[in-house]
Design a protein that fits this description.
With 170 residues, the chain is of the alpha+beta class. The protein folds into 2 domains: 76 residues, no CATH class; 77 residues, Rossmann fold (3-Layer(aba) Sandwich), CATH 3.40.50. It is 40% helix and 18% strand. It is built from 5 helices and 5 strands; from the N terminus they run E-H-H-H-E-E-H-E-E-H. The chain has a 3-stranded mixed β-sheet, covered by helices on one side. The chain has a two-stranded antiparallel sheet with strand order 1-2. A hairpin with a 1-residue loop joins strand 4 and strand 5.
Length: 170
């Protein structure tokens, strides 16, 4: 799991030298901070149960040490190195122009021309995985709906977004 981890700033681990000092300071303050009282016998206190507070007394300090350790590790910037392979593929640039005018709502195709064009365009996008495809729409004016991209999912999203706008306007 941790086979190929490298650190960009391994010198940051020198800050870990602060932790033993913090532990020594905590122990010093802990020993110095106890109040003393003289009693004749502690036999009455022997059978009392310890509270959760007594069990968790040092947990806050432990959490602080853990937080500082993790912060120092983050400052060292751990990075995984994996093998990298460059793959070259060949494709072409295609810009599709699509008419979204009112004439595309004619129902000579099922259900209409715009739906038929949408289905053909989606099939076309999926059949060209290595090509960069762009989309220009026109209806009196032209708009670049999506510039050339190999992210065909984004192209389809842009296409559908425009299609929904056109339906709301009609």
């Amino acid at each position: 799991m941790f086979d190929n981890i490298e650190f960009a700033n391994p010198e940051m681990f020198l800050l870990m030298l602060v932790i033993p000092g913090m532990i020594a300071w905590y122990i010093y303050k802990l020993r110095k901070g106890y109040a003393e009282i003289q009693v004749s016998s502690t036999s009455v206190l022997e059978n009392t149960r310890r509270s959760i507070r007594q069990y968790l007394f040092h947990s806050l300090f432990i959490m602080r040490i853990l937080a500082i350790t993790l912060l120092i590790t983050a400052l060292a910037r751990p990075q995984t190195s994996t093998s990298r392979q460059d793959i070259s593929i060949e494709g072409i640039d295609i810009v599709m122009a699509l008419d979204v005018s009112g004439s595309m709502l004619a129902q000579d195709l099922r259900p209409d021309r715009l739906e038929a064009a949408k289905a053909v365009a989606l099939d076309f996008f999926q059949g060209r995985p290595n090509d960069r495809i762009g989309l220009v729409i026109f209806s009196g004016e032209t708009f670049t709906q999506c510039p050339l991209t190999t992210d065909h999912l984004q192209l389809i999203i842009q296409y559908l977004r425009n299609y929904l706008k056109k339906l709301k306007a009609a």
